[in-house]
Amino acid sequence: MAKSPHLSRNEFVKIVVAFLGTIMGVVIGFPAIGYLLSPALKKESLDAWISAGPIESYPVGTPTLFKFTRTTINGWEKTVNSYGAYIYRETEQKVTAFDNTCTHLSCRVTWLEEEQVYLCPCHDGEFDIDGTVVSGPPPRPLDRFETKVEDETLFIRLEVG
Amino acid sequence: MTARFIAWLDERIGIISIWDTIFDRKVPKVNWWFTLGSASLFLFVMQGLTGIFLTVYYVPTPDHAYDSIQYIMNGIAFGWLIRGIHHWGSTLMVLIVFIHMLRTFYYASYKFPREMTWFSGVVLLLATLGMGFTGYLLPMNQRSYWATTVGTEIAGSVPFIGSFILRVLRGGSDLSAVTLARFFSVHIWFIPLILALMIGLHMYLVIRLGISAIPDEKD
């Protein structure tokens, strides 16, 4: 068959299939990416003053763990997150609240009274009583919660997100 | 560039002869009813893809199934679209596969030498219906629950072995978490595997034997 200047049936079908295929790919493909990323794009933030009880219940000189929980919504479910703060009263007046989350990879640290260090069990990170790194992989000192004392009650500020 | 790449690939894996065998086949003059097999394949692929995406958020337990689907519909970007395609695609697939069977029957395309194509098609039709039945329970809403109650009771009405069949389907005598888990497993693993294997056989036979012409007055 001589080459016709017009579109052959075969060429026409190829173009139509490529055209419709591209449209369908875009209409399904882009929403599919959004669908997968969707929960990652929602960020929950939290900023609250948490009551840690009477300041007098914390001994002077010994870091004492105060645990509390806060709830967030993930998907269709409530997720209860546990937090821990080591309340350290250096003197009657001076109080510091350390986040017990290791600054390396977020395991929880424990205060060891005999050794006088916070030890992280995951990779043996150690912090001293001021939260500074003694040994191991942690890149920075323990994080601190903001604190305030009102009517003899200690409050710590939780900020997430 | 593209031509050179295709030539390079063809030297190594014979891609051109594969392409020609699949797409450059001689076909008799046929009509639009002969597009239903391709339409079924397209729907199978669509159901497979949207189904894979749904498993990202769907949780097959009685206490999470309904809520996870509400989340897909209202909490996730384009979740309504993915589930909508899967939902309507399932109904459309049963319809298209069934009409595909009717076309094969009325044009007598199931005769020699295409009996095996027909047999594999029978399995494909039953497997498609199985997908519809198992998928119906997964949203775990009132309609799902009672439809599956009734469906398994019907299977249970078989003489002698009925109660055994019912307990196999439900994984016990009650419709429970076990039922949902096994329906989910059958819906996403067992039947899709059967479908994929049978589609492979079905298409191999279609390509090997060619498609039958429309019968005329001489037949």
Describe the structure.
The complex is a heterodimer of chains A (161) and B (219). In chain A, a hairpin with a 4-residue loop joins strand 5 and strand 6. Helix content of chain A is 18%, strand content 41%. Chain A is of the alpha+beta class and 161 residues long. Chain A folds into 2 domains: 74 residues, no CATH class; 39 residues, Rieske Iron-sulfur Protein. The termini of chain A are far apart. Chain A contains 1 helix and 10 strands, in the order αββββββββββ. Chain B contains 9 helices and no strands. In chain B, helix 6 packs across helix 7. The model of chain B has no long low-confidence stretch (mean pLDDT 96). Chains A and B meet through helix 1 of A and helix 4 and helix 5 of B.
In short:
The complex is a heterodimer of chains A (161) and B (219). Chain A is of the alpha+beta class and 161 residues long.
List the helices and strands and how they pair.
The complex is a heterodimer of chains A (161) and B (219).
Chain A: H1 9-37, E1 46-54, E2 64-74, E3 77-89, E4 95-99, E5 110-112, E6 117-120, E7 125-127, E8 133-135, E9 144-150, E10 153-160
Antiparallel strand pairs in A: 1-10, 2-3, 3-4, 4-9, 5-6, 6-7, 7-8, 9-10
Chain B: H1 2-13, H2 15-23, H3 36-54, H4 65-74, H5 79-106, H6 115-137, H7 142-156, H8 162-170, H9 177-209
